[in-house]
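To close the section, here is one more complete example, presented without commentary so you can practise reading it yourself. The ligand is nicotinamide-adenine-dinucleotide.
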Amino acid sequence: MRVTVVGSGFVGQTTAMRVVERGLAEVVLIDIVEGLPQGLALDLRQSAPVVGFDPAIVGTNDYADTAGSDVVVITAGFPRQPGMSRMDLLGKNAGIVRDVVERIVPGSPNAIIVVVTNPLDEMTFLAADVSGFPRESVMGMAGVLDSARLRALIAEELGTSPLRVEAMTLGSHGESMVPLPRHATVDGKPLADLVDEATLERLYARTRDAGAEIVGLLKKGSAYYAPSASVAKMIEAIAGRTDEPLPVCAWCTGQFGIEGVYVGVPVRLGAAGVTEIVELDLNEEELAALREAAEGIRAKCADLASL
Ligand SMILES: NC(=O)c1ccc[n+]([C@@H]2O[C@H](COP(=O)([O-])OP(=O)(O)OC[C@H]3O[C@@H](n4cnc5c(N)ncnc54)[C@H](O)[C@@H]3O)[C@@H](O)[C@H]2O)c1
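Output:
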């Protein structure tokens, strides 16, 4: 498999590292800054003998080198600064995502696009619109990250391993994240039986604000270890190495009563992109929250037209 990572900043470079280290694909790393992707690719190739992988990575500033990509991960754009919301990034990053997609499409007309640039839901919609690709070939990364953050926080709260915790978040990447208490378990036991309501709410609020918490601590730039791990997990699924449902920003066509909008839902991924939206058993309250998140995204995507 050939994966292009557009944007060689913190998320792009750590994504490239995870993909080559796991031998998931050959990687083309691209950026507008001359020398940056070339230098990073050279450094990564020189780590190969120590880490133990085949050094299939090149850096470039030329889109001709990305031709024939099976997957294109878009991380190009500005990250948040302290006090900035993901929406503050909308105008700045829409121009970048539009330009990147226009340059990628001619050389890789059958690629799957995984959008990472924020604001995530809107940028995913924009990439789908500009590419003209089938909607199942264009998706956004957010739910795997939000779910990982929730699992990590639950594990810390209960003093256990995150590997014993299962949890999934749906909805939008941001204020309208939809946590699913009934689907969260620790060692197979429902989370709601292990902590009180106030603790649940505190864990959800911290998950929702986890990106901002990290931005506040870093002062410059935003999170990248967990985001790149989440992208790598999606590429692993696209490569057919796992079949587990993952929460992904995907185009809904009536599932959960939601139609014609990108929103975080559980999906199965494969070589064709989103191969199935998994209709989890949601109760009325959960469904209402998911539909509200979807309508919020629909309204924000309409704002894109006015840019
Ligand atoms: N979806 C998520 O869950 C999630 C998580 C983390 C970060 N993000 C987002 O990912 C994006 C990247 O974050 P980062 O920390 O890597 O930022 P960064 O500033 O470290 O890197 C961004 C890179 O994009 C490059 N770039 C800018 N315009 C470009 C263009 N037209 N073509 C190619 N490259 C271009 C820059 O030169 C820079 O190297 C941000 O928008 C951030 O908000 C999303």
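Once you have examined the tokens, check your reading against these statements. The two ends are 36 Å apart (CA to CA). The CA atoms of residues 237 and 269 lie 6 Å apart.
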